[in-house]
Amino acid sequence: MDPVSVKAVIRGPQGILFLKNPRNELELPGGRPNHRETLELALTREIEEECGLNITSATYMGSQSCEIVPGRSVLLVFFYCTLPEGRLVLSDEHTAYEWVDLDAEPPHNMPSFYWEFCSQLRNDHNASEYAAAARPEYPLHTGEADRQRLMVTAEVYNAATTEFLRKFLPKTGRILEVGCGHGQIAQWLAANAPEATVIGLDNDAEQISLAKSAASAHGINNLSFRVGDLSDLASISQLKRKFELITCRFTLLHIGQRRPVVEALLGLLTPLGVLVVEEPSLGSLFCIPHVAGFEQANAAISAYGESRGVNYNCIEDIWSIITKMNVQIRDARFSQPTVWKKEHKALVKLSFQQLSPRLVAHGILEEHQAKRIEQSLDSEYMDDLVISGGLRTLQIAMSVKGRS
């Protein structure tokens, strides 16, 4: 009888978690049960040993006898696991890890039986749970609890955003802003294109409620808002009428698998329509002179995204995705604001305060480290002699080739 090995299929926003073994092959995390150990206990133990993660749920998917190396077969028993809390830390058994996108081509160093079995998850096993696992975890506050941070964000970034958007603003027709938050950009679009119809889309009902109230208070009548989730492409496709302009900012940042979202948005354009995307790189932040807390805060946030399968330094990824599509790039530029006013520097502290509990809960920081970073941001970084660069963003305007 073949020896038994339990394997975890762990789904994150960018795909399935695979580990690279000493043979330079990608394999699912897991291993053999000890004497009298149940498969479930073995799975929990192996994932903690190999990845530093604590499995909280496991659903049996099936088993298959596979030839791991020539002449040596092992009965692999697969369990589907939701993405655990905590920071992914590899043991000495593996050299690296990757989140593998099942919608892309199979990696050259992955055995075919792993690819075939994991693909079943996407095709016919627990489809609703798979979709839920693919939905990104939005780490910041929403609604009234995020009002101050979003107001400062608007003061720092809106000028460059609207300057770029103005070149593609249609006089009439339909305009869509996705990830509209409290609706500042949507209001600007509606005010500057009074004969157009503007829709703001966000996945948080409280955000939409506040956006509606603000638009009503300003007497803007050509603007409406609705709840919709970019991770649920079906909700996007329900917007059946096409748009002359679609824009999103700081939205793809939080999504692991970005290509399907960009494709869905391009599909909502009219023949002459334009999609404008503006997304940042967290690695572009800097301050002069050096402030340790500033750099530590950004490093911790980046590590949090990586642990959840989301790369917050997304400029390169988005450019690579778009340039491989059937699109005409109408314009592209980098933009990075200078942040030196105290009221603007508060954005860094507000963002870290919101993220700090998650950074501690996920094992990125110890509680005392988080407090020390916050103190540094509150004192050293806020000093009048400290100046910093905000997020460098990549702004791209594109249309679909061959539609005009």
Automatic annotation (TrEMBL):
* GO terms (BP aspect): methylation
The molecular function terms in GO held by this entry are: methyltransferase activity
> Where do the Nudix hydrolase domain residues begin and end?
1-123
> One Pfam family, short name please?
NUDIX
The alphabetized UniProt keywords are: Hydrolase, Methyltransferase, Transferase
Record CDD domains: AdoMet_MTases (cd02440), NUDIX_MutT_Nudt1 (cd04699)
The transmembrane segments are: none
What are the names of the required cofactors?
Mg(2+)
Mind telling me which InterPro entries this protein's record contains? Methyltranfer_dom, NUDIX_hydrolase-like_dom_sf, NUDIX_hydrolase_CS, NUDIX_hydrolase_dom, SAM-dependent_MTases_sf
Name residues in a coiled coil. Answer: none
Q: Mind telling me what this protein is named?
A: Methyltransferase domain-containing protein
Q: Which organism is it from?
A: Pandoraea apista
